[in-house]
Amino acid sequence: MDSHVHIDFFDSKQRDDCIRDALAAGIDYFVVPGVSREKWAQLFEIARRENVFFALGEHPLELTDVPENESRSEILLREIKKTKETRVGRKLVAIGEIGLDYYHLSTKNLERREIQRRAFREQLFAAVEEKLPAIIHCRDKDGSVDAWNDANSIITECEISPKDVLFHSFSYGPEQVKKWCECGGYVSISGTITKPNAQEIRAALPFIPREKMLIETDSPFLLPHALRIAGKEQPANEPKNVVEVARFVGEILGKDKWEILSQTRENGLRFFHINRQ
Ligand SMILES: [Zn+2]
Hints:
Bound molecules: zinc ion
Order of helices and strands: HEHEHEHEHEHEHEHH
CATH superfamily: Metal-dependent hydrolases
């Protein structure tokens, strides 16, 4: 399973090709997270495909203003209701990706951080209301854990169970992962772990309980390091590269990639409450 793939960023031909190639590589489930309100409608189209599921949400760096008389929760709840009445209603499996991204914000930009926190809280509230799991994007810069700490406070405040919360493209260390998984939380590992400077994430890996780990590509972003082509423009990342992330993870944990792929698929189906077909 590719637990986080933006196939809506590809054109329809590329989309067909990359799903075909992923299926051929043994990847049979795909979860496409929402990024911005204007792109939500496209997700309904994409989710008509077999085994393609989706989430609704606004990424912390893609927040657009909300009308004065409305909240982000209300907008999201209305969209969920509308979705449930459509053919692809059962394909809506989560709220996301929502969260905090302080990587692109200077520490001086406190106002922007507050806007992100508010949007995150409001969307997480909708997840609780609808009893849907949440996909969290959480990013800090240079070893800081400000976004991580703020995200955890908001999760506690909203009273959503950690077993319904997935930190996607996990980019923190052993201390964070231990605490989070002890509470029952899930994490998803992306190609970020393959970067030469990702020692912290690699060190965290052995502390993720086997039933709490998912794997993703975050395509077309985060191409695994081994697939980079030196001196050339980099190809887009694709869902079939879940296999490469699994290989890399397996190498660190001393496990076969197929064992990693099968366990993380099982975990993903459980986390997103996808009934096996
Ligand atoms: Zn993403």
